[in-house]
Amino acid sequence: MESIKQRQVAKTIQIAMSELVQKEIQPMLEGALLTVSGVRVTPDLYTARIYVSIYNHAKPDSILDMLDKNNKQIRGFLGNKIRNKVRSVPQLEFFKDDTLEDVQNLERIFSEIKKKDAEIEQLRKKDENK
C-alpha cells in the first residue's frame, strides 16, 4: 500500500517528467513519441520507477536503452525541476508500459469473437427457417 507521501512524490515526478519529455528529452528520442504513463516510488523515496509508452518507433527497446544510458542527465534535468518540492531526487528506473498494446489486442480479440458469434447466429436463423 502506497503512502500519501509516495503518491505525492510520484505525481510530482510524473508531471515534471512529462514536461521534460516535451522539452529537454525530445531531441534524444529519434522521432519517437514518448508518454509517461505512471510513476511508482519506493517506500524510502529513494527510487522512482517510471513507466513510459513508446510510439512511432520501429525499435521501442532502443529508446528504453537510450533513457537508461542518459539516466544521469535526465535525473539532473528532473532535479532542476523538482528541487524545491522534494528533499532528494530519487534514482530513476525506466520501464516500458505495454498496457495500451494489451488493451488493443484484447479489443481485437473481442471484436473477432463478436463477429464469429454473429456468424453463428445467422447460421442458426437459417437452420430455423428451413
Tell me the helix content. 55-70%
- Our count of domains comes out at 2
State the name of the first-level CATH class of the largest domain: Alpha Beta
Compute the number of strand runs. 3
| Number of separate helices | 4
Largest sheet, spatial ordering of strands: 1-2-3
Which of globular, elongated, flat, extended, rod-shaped describes the shape? elongated
- Poorly predicted regions: none
Going by CATH, the architecture of the largest domain would be: 2-Layer Sandwich
Give the mean pLDDT. 90
The main pleated sheet reads as: 3 strands, mixed
CATH superfamily label of the largest domain? K homology (KH) domain
Entry keywords:
single chain, 130 residues, alpha+beta, GMP Synthetase, Chain A, domain 3, 3-stranded mixed beta sheet
Task: Outline the fold blueprint.
Blueprint lengths: L3 H19 L10 E9 L5 E9 L4 H10 L1 H12 L8 E6 L2 H31 L1
Parallel strand pairs: 2-3
Antiparallel strand pairs: 1-2
Helix pairs in contact: 1-3
